[in-house]
Amino acid sequence: MIQDDANAKNKVLTDDELAAWVTHEHFMQLALQQAHYAGELKEVPVGAVIVKQGNVIAAAHNQCEQLHDATAHAEMIAITQAAEAVGDWRLEDCTMYVTLEPCTMCSGAILQSRIPLVVYGAVDPKGGAVESLYQLLNDSRLNHQAAIVRGVLAEPCGAILTDFFRALRKLDN
Question: Is the pTM of this model over 0.85?
Answer without folding.
Answer: yes
